[in-house]
C-alpha cells in the first residue's frame, strides 16, 4: 500500500512539468553536421538529451518537445569538461549540443560563434526529419551558451541570426571580433554568470562590459563570491595550468560553485524556455536573498503576488543520476526539510531529519551499496510534502 501511495503522489506531483523539474535520464548521441552555407564546413556535435533510460543513442523521452541549447567550450577545452552542465540541465528537460570545432591553439572566434548558431538551426531541422532520433522532439525555444571563449563566441553567434531566443554565459571571455560589440546589438533575455575571483577573464574587463553593452530589456549579471574561471567546468588540466599563473585564487570549492551555477541557471532557463512563471519567481527571490552571489538585473521575471505553497515548495535534484551524494535545490524561504528515500518496492533506504537549508540547497549523503535504479525521495517541510523520482547508479 505504501508503494501505491507513493506512485499516486508521484503521479500528481509530476502531472504538470511546470511545477517542478521532471528528472529525466541523460541520453547521448554524436551528430556529424555540415554547413552548406560555409563550403560544407564539418561540425561534429556531441548531443545530450532527456531520455527515459540513460545511454548512447537511446530514444528521446516521449510526451513533449524539448528546448535546445548550443554550448561553446573554452579555449583548448573540449565538450567533456562540461559534464556538470549537462547533468544539471538535461534532467530538467533541455537538449544540449556541444560543437567540437575550433579546439586548436589558433581558433576563429567568429566561426565558432557561427557554429553555435548553425547547430541550433540544424537541431530544429532534426526535429522535422522523420528519420532523426529527434523527430518531433525539438521545441522552437532555444538558447546559446558557452564558457570562456565559448561564452564570448555565443555573443558573436547570437548576433548572426534573429532566431535565437536567449543567451546564458559562464565567465565569458572577450573575443576577436569583440563580443562586447556584438552584445550591443542583442535585445533578447540574457544571463551572465561570473566568478568574483576569476583571474583568467576578470569580470571588470570581460563580463561586466558585455553586460553593460547589452540592449536587452531583461538582463542579469550574477557574480559568484569566491568563484573562479576554471571552476565553471569540471576539473580540466589545460584550464588549470592557465589559472595557476594568476591571482586571486578561488575561495570556494568546485562543488559549491557548481551548486551556485545550478541554483540560478536552472530557474532562469525554465522561465525563459519553458514559460515557467514559478521558476521566474524563484530566480527573482534568489537574486535578492542568496548571500553567495551579487546580482545586477534590470527586470522582474515573474511578478510575485504571494507565492503559492506549490511554487514555494518546488524541488530540484542534481546530479542525475546520483551516486554517493544528492543535492536538493529549494525555494529560499524554506529553512529546513526532512527527507526519506524509498526504493521502488517502498522500502526505506535512507532518512534525514530537520536538515538546515543553506543558500536554498541541502546535501544528502547516500548510503553505500544502493542498487542502481529508480528511487523516490519524500521531502517534507512545515507539513507540506513532495515525492520526487531519483535515479541512482
Tell me about this structure.
The chain has 393 residues and is an alpha/beta fold. It folds into two domains: 22-297, Rossmann fold (3-Layer(aba) Sandwich); 314-392, Macroglobulin (MG2) domain (Immunoglobulin-like). The protein has ten helices and 17 strands. The strands form three sheets. Strands 3-1-2-5-4-6-7-8-9-10 form a ten-stranded mixed sheet, sandwiched between helices. It has a four-stranded antiparallel sheet with strand order 14-13-16-17. β16 (373-381) and β17 form a beta hairpin. The chain starts with a helix and ends with a strand. The model is unreliable at 1-21 and 306-310 (pLDDT under 50).
What is the structure about, briefly put?
With 393 residues, the chain is of the alpha/beta class. It is built from 10 helices and 17 strands. A hairpin with a 5-residue loop joins strand 1 (25-35) and strand 2.
Supply the key terms.
single chain, Immunoglobulin-like, 2 domains, ten-stranded mixed beta sheet, four-stranded antiparallel beta sheet, 10 helices
Protein topology:
Layout: H1 2-14, E1 25-35, E2 41-51, E3 55-56, E4 66-72, H2 83-89, E5 95-99, H3 109-126, E6 138-147, H4 149-158, E7 167-170, H5 179-183, E8 190-195, H6 207-213, E9 219-224, H7 237-243, H8 254-274, H9 277-289, E10 293-297, H10 309-312, E11 315-318, E12 325-330, E13 336-343, E14 348-356, E15 361-365, E16 373-381, E17 384-392
Parallel strand pairs: 1-3, 4-5, 4-6, 6-7, 7-8, 8-9
Antiparallel strand pairs: 1-2, 2-5, 9-10, 11-12, 12-15, 13-14, 13-16, 16-17
Helix pairs in contact: 3-4, 8-9
Amino acid at each position: 500500500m505504501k508503494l501505491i501511495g507513493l506512485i499516486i503522489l508521484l503521479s500528481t506531483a509530476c502531472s504538470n512539468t511546470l511545477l517542478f523539474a521532471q528528472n529525466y535520464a541523460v541520453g547521448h548521441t554524436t551528430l556529424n553536421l555540415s554547413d552548406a552555407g560555409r563550403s560544407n564546413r564539418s561540425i561534429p556535435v556531441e548531443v545530450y538529451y532527456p531520455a527515459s533510460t540513460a545511454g548512447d543513442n537511446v530514444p528521446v523521452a516521449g510526451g513533449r518537445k524539448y528546448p535546445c541549447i548550443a554550448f561553446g567550450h573554452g579555449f583548448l577545452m573540449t565538450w567533456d569538461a562540461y559534464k556538470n552542465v549537462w547533468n544539471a540541465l538535461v534532467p530538467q528537460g533541455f537538449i544540449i549540443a556541444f560543437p567540437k570545432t575550433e579546439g586548436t591553439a589558433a581558433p576563429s572566434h567568429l566561426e565558432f560563434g557561427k557554429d553555435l548558431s548553425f547547430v541550433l538551426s540544424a537541431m530544429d531541422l532534426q526535429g522535422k526529419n522523420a528519420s532523426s532520433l529527434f523527430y518531433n522532439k525539438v521545441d522552437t525555444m532555444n538558447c546559446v551558451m558557452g564558457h570562456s571563449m565559448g561564452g564570448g563566441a555565443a555573443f558573436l553567434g547570437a548576433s548572426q541570426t534573429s532566431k535565437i531566443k536567449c543567451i546564458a554565459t559562464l565567465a565569458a571571455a572577450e573575443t576577436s571580433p569583440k563580443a562586447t560589440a556584438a552584445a550591443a546589438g542583442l535585445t533578447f533575455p540574457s544571463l551572465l554568470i561570473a566568478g568574483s575571483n576569476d583571474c583568467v577573464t576578470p569580470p571588470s574587463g570581460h563580463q561586466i562590459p558585455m553586460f553593460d553593452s547589452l540592449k536587452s530589456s531583461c538582463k542579469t549579471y550574477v557574480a559568484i563570491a569566491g568563484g573562479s574561471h576554471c571552476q565553471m567546468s569540471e576539473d580540466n588540466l589545460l584550464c588549470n595550468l592557465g589559472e595557476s599563473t594568476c591571482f586571486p585564487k578561488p575561495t570556494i570549492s568546485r562543488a559549491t560553485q557548481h551548486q551556485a551555477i545550478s541554483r540560478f541557471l536552472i530557474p532562469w532557463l525554465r522561465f525563459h524556455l519553458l514559460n515557467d512563471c514559478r521558476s521566474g519567481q524563484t530566480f527573482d527571490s534568489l537574486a535578492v536573498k542568496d548571500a553567495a552571489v551579487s546580482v545586477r538585473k534590470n527586470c522582474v521575471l515573474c511578478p510575485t503576488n504571494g507565492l503559492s505553497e506549490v511554487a514555494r515548495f518546488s524541488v530540484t535534484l542534481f546530479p542525475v543520476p546520483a551516486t554517493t551524494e544528492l543535492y536538493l535545490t529549494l525555494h529560499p524561504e524554506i529553512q529546513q526539510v526532512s527527507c526519506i528515500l524509498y526504493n521502488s518496492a517502498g522500502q526505506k533506504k535512507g532518512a534525514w531529519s530537520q536538515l538546515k537549508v543553506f543558500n536554498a540547497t541541502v546535501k544528502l549523503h547516500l548510503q553505500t551499496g544502493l542498487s542502481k535504479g529508480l528511487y523516490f525521495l519524500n521531502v517534507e517541510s512545515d507539513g507540506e510534502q513532495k515525492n520526487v523520482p531519483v535515479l541512482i547508479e
